[in-house]
Amino acid sequence: MTPEHAYEILGLNSDVSRDDAKKAYRELVKVYHPDKNTAANANVMFRLIQDAWNCLQSAYEEEIIQPINDAEFYNNQGISKFELGEYVAAIFNFDMALRLNSNDVETYITQVAS
Fold this sequence. Notes:
The protein contains 6 helices and no strands.
């Protein structure tokens, strides 16, 4: 199951917050729980809703765990930290930016020096 399909099953747009997705999941689980719903398809719907939620949970965890691989992000963080006087954090961020894009050394030096 893809996250797009999971959102569709839960009746959500893909830009919904994690909390709103969780609320929708909980509401649907209550409606289709086999102990409370005697319809023929309640058990199937219940499992489908659970599968959709599990798929979204995995997608959310991947987003949280997935490392940021954007040199510009780290460069901007480094500039912000440098301006705040947080030099150790600035160095860490510039180091990460350089590791991701070592061809841009002159840009980083120029930005810090200015």
